[in-house]
């Protein structure tokens, strides 16, 4: 299931055969986490996604801009490092140095 805010760019997710739940952050609504299952667990929220975007922006900041052509490669490196929480930051810097010298 994809949990997002109500930005119109997400409207096509159901067309892609993805289950989609939203939270409404509009002024006057201010809905944050909510539970849809009646079990008291607030499973519909976008906090994880917002935290992930913040981490990705922090990762990209030292590069001072990334070409759209290479963005997917930068995101793949970020994803690899994020998924391997025990990865030492120096190892990532070394790998990025090797990658930039190879092109």
From TrEMBL:
Q: What InterPro entries would the database entry show?
A: Tnp_ISXO2-like
Domain of life, source organism: Bacteria
UniProt-annotated stretches for the region Disordered? 18-39
A Pfam family per the record: DDE_Tnp_IS1595
- Boundaries of every ISXO2-like transposase domain copy: 3-83
State what protein this is by name: ISXO2-like transposase domain-containing protein
